[in-house]
Amino acid sequence: MQLDDLYRQVIMDHYQHPRNVGELAADAITVDLRNPSCGDEIKLQLQVKDGVVTDARFRGSGCSISMASASMMTEAVKGLPIAEALALSRSFRAMMRGEEPDRDLGDLEALQGVSKFPARIKCATLAWQALEKAVRPQPAE
Amino acid sequence: MDVAAVRRDFPILQQTVNGHPLVYLDNAATSQKPRPVIEAIRHYYETYNANVHRGVHTLGTKATEAYELAREKVARFIHAPSAEQVIFTRGTTESINMIAYGFARPRLGPGDEIVTTAAEHHSNLVPWQQVARATGAALKFIPLQPDGTISLDDVRRTVTPATKLVAIAHVSNVLGTIHPVREIAEIAHAAGAVVVVDGAQSVPHLPTDVQAMDCDFLAFSGHKMCGPTGIGVLYGKRKWLDEMEPTYFGGEMIDVVELHQSTWKETPWKFEGGTPIIAGAIALGVAVDYLTGIGMEAIRQHDRALTAYALERLRRVEGITVYGPARAEQRGGLVTFNLEGVHPHDLATVLDAEGIAIRAGHHCCQPLMRWLGVPATARASFYLYNTEQDIDALVNALQTAKEFFHHAIG
Ligand SMILES: Cc1ncc(COP(=O)(O)O)c(C=O)c1O
What we know:
The complex is a heterodimer of chains A (141) and B (410).
Chain A: H1 3-6, H2 9-16, E1 29-34, E2 41-49, E3 52-61, H3 64-77, H4 82-96, H5 121-135
Antiparallel strand pairs in A: 1-2, 2-3
Helix pairs in contact in A: 2-3, 3-5, 4-5
Chain B: H1 3-8, E1 16-17, E2 20-21, E3 23-24, H2 35-48, H3 58-77, E4 86-89, H4 92-107, E5 113-117, H5 126-135, E6 138-142, H6 152-158, E7 163-169, H7 181-190, E8 194-198, H8 210-213, E9 217-221, E10 232-236, H9 238-243, E11 254-257, E12 262-264, H10 278-294, H11 296-315, E13 320-323, E14 334-339, H12 344-353, E15 356-357, E16 359-361, H13 366-372, E17 377-381, H14 388-409
Parallel strand pairs in B: 3-15, 5-6, 5-7, 7-8, 8-9
Antiparallel strand pairs in B: 1-2, 4-10, 9-10, 11-12, 13-14, 14-17, 16-17
Helix pairs in contact in B: 2-10, 3-10, 4-5, 11-14
The structure holds pyridoxal-5'-phosphate.
The site of pyridoxal-5'-phosphate (PLP) has 14 residues of chain B, from helix 4.
C-alpha cells in the first residue's frame, strides 16, 4: 500500500488551493449532495447555456480526495457540452473501477491511485455524482 | 488480567495488515471475536443445527435448550430478575425500534414529551423522531456541557410531568461520556416517565446491573461484546414487556391462531417472531461466559487505564483536539479527536497503511458533529486485548500523518 500513489502532488495542490470555489447567480443549477456514510458535503453550481456548461463553482467540506476531485471536476467540465461532461464522468468512474482511462483525463489522472483504495472511491466520486445529478435530463412530470 | 493470553484467544489479531501487525482500535464499531465464540457457531452448525421451539426430535431439543440457556446467561450478565426479560433481537437498533413501535407509539400523544440528548447515536434518536411525528409528542433535549457531560440539574429542568419517556445512552459512542443513568432514572420515575438506556457502548465495557440502574428498558448489541453480528438484546421490566405489543407477527410468536384473530405467546417469545438467530444467540451466550471469565470489573479497569494513557499521550501531540470529558474515570474506553490540517478520512487512510484501524466520520451522530462544530472526527476505541503499545503505535502514526500531510501540502 503506497500512500504516495494516493496523495499525488496535484491532488494536494487542488486540496490546498481549490479552484472554482464560490457561488453562481441565482439561476444556476444547484445540487447539494452529501455522502451520508462519512459526512462529506458538496454544493455544486453549474451555469448552462445552450446545452454547454459555461461556468461551475462549488463549496464543500470533506477530505483531501473529495475536495481535490471537486476542484478538478469543475475545471474539467467548464466549456463542455452536457453530453461530453457526462461522457467525461463515465470515463472518470471507469478509472475509479481500475480501468485504464479511455481518453486523456489531464490532471484528473492524478486521482487514478484512488482506485487502489476502495474505501476512498466514494470520496473521489462525490463531486461527479453531483455533476450527473445537475445535468442529467429530468424525467418528465 | 493477562493481556498477552487474551490476545492469543483472538485469531484475527495474529495477522499483519499492509505489512504491519494489526492494531485494532475500532472496537466501538465492532469488537473482535475470541476462539470459543467462533467455535460455538461452528459446533452448532456441525452437530446440532435445528429449528427451535418446534421439533420433537433430538437435535431440535438440543438447539432449543442451548438457545434458552443463552438467554439465561445474558440475563445473569446484566442482573435481570428473570431470563424471560431478555428478548433476542438483531441488535441495539432493532431493540430500540421495538420499544418505539410496541411501547411508545400506542402510549404517547399530543402534549407528551420524549426527552433525550443531542449526543445520541442515530439509532437512539431517529426512532424517537418517528414516534414524535406519529403521535404528536414533542422531542426535547437535555443540554450538553462543553465537555459533553450532562448535569442532573439540567435533567431536572428538562424532565417535566409531561415527559413520558427518557432515552439516553449509558456511554456515548463519540464523546465516551458515562452518563449517570441511575440518577436520571430516579428523576424520570419521579416525573412518571420510563427510561430507555442505549447500552451499546456500556454493556460490553462496564459491569451492568439493570436492577441497580433501575432502567425500564436496555438495548445492546452482541457484536460489540465479542459476540457475532446479527444478535442483540432488548431487556425490559416485566410489566412493560407484558403490556408491550409485538413488532413482528407470524410463526413462533403465536399462541392460538384463528382465521380472523390470534393470541400471542408469553414474554419474551411473543417478541421473537420467525426463526430466530439461533447460532448467534448461542454464541452470544458463549461471549458472555468469556467476558465473565475475565471479569467485567477487570475489563473496565483495563479500558480505563488505556484511556488515561491515550488521553495523556494524545494531548501532547501538537495540533490535536480531544473531545469529551477530561478524566478517564468519566469515560468509556474510547477517545475521539481531530488533528489540525488532516481530515479524519485522510488520517484513517494513513493509519491504515500502518496497519492501524480507527474510525473516521460522523459515527452515526450528525447532530453531535454539528454541536462540536466539525464535519467529522477520528476515533480510537479500546477493548480487553488492546495494549499501551497499540496506543504508542497510534501516536507515532499520527506524527507520520502530520509530517506526510505537511510535506505533501508543502
Ligand atoms: C451508542 C450506540 N447506539 C446504538 C448503536 C447501534 O448498534 P447496532 O448497529 O448494533 O444496532 C451503536 C453502534 O454503533 C452505538 O454505538
